[in-house]
């Protein structure tokens, strides 16, 4: 890992010491469900839904007894709820029949599940099982490329480059740190570059500092 990226992570650790997975869950299954629901939705909204749903439905056997109507009654406030609900209803019997009632522990198995792509799989692997992985959502993609940790045009390439450029034992933390920075400081439309502790290292800031905030030096 080069000197710049090492310094970036050191600063992010100090800036966001509370960075962690914000989706409420107690089991790998609950995390998988919450992550599927989180596509194009905020963690806050997903938590509002799952906090209620997980009170009644806790285990796979519970979810296998659930009807589509019951599921939609919980998740209808979340975007794309019909397709997400359809995927979940397909998911539950697959977990029982093909995986012995357990959430798979490999990328290869996870991405074959309904509604699961690499990002969701990486979230489950890293947060449920402690497997080194970097889930690249919109925040991670934006922040990593703005700062200049990587210089890629797609989510897939960004994940590949981050895995090459960051030490493997830091992948999980880096995912959370970049998300928190994206939510709190490096927002999509109005990044707070003047208040960002990374601006002296940031490629985006160096290119745009003259046109950002007039009072900035």
Please, could you describe this protein's structure?
Belongs to the Nth/MutY family. It is an enzyme of class 4 (lyase). It is a single chain. With 217 residues, this protein is mainly alpha-helical. The chain has two domains: 28-129, Endonuclease III, domain 1 (Orthogonal Bundle), CATH 1.10.340; 134-209, Helix-hairpin-Helix base-excision DNA repair enzymes (C-terminal) (Endonuclease Iii, domain 2), CATH 1.10.1670. Helices cover 58% and strands 0% of the residues. The chain has helices at 3-15, 28-37, 43-56, 60-64, 68-75, 81-99, 107-110, 118-129, 138-147, 155-165, 171-184, 203-208. Helix 5 (68-75) crosses helix 6 (81-99). The radius of gyration is 19 Å and the shape is elongated.
């Amino acid at each position: 890992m080069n000197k710049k990226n090492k310094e970036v992570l050191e600063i992010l650790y100090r800036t966001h010491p509370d960075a962690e997975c914000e989706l409420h869950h107690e089991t790998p299954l609950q995390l998988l469900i919450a992550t599927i629901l989180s596509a194009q939705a905020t963690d806050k909204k997903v938590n509002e839904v799952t906090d209620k749903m997980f009170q009644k439905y806790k285990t796979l056997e519970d979810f296998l007894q659930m009807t589509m109507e019951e599921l939609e009654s919980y998740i209808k406030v979340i975007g794309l709820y019909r397709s997400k609900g359809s995927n979940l209803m397909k998911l539950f019997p697959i977990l029982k029949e093909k995986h012995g009632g357990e959430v798979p522990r490999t990328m290869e198995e996870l991405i074959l599940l309904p509604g699961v792509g690499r990002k969701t799989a990486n979230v489950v692997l890293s947060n449920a099982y402690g497997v080194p992985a970097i889930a690249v959502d919109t925040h991670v993609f934006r922040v990593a490329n703005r700062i200049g940790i990587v210089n890629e045009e797609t989510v897939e390439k960004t994940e590949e480059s981050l895995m090459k450029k960051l030490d493997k034992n830091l992948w999980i933390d880096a995912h959370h740190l970049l998300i928190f920075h994206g939510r709190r400081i490096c927002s999509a439309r109005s990044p707070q570059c003047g208040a960002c502790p990374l601006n002296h290292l940031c490629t985006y800031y160096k290119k745009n500092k003259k046109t950002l905030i007039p009072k900035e030096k």
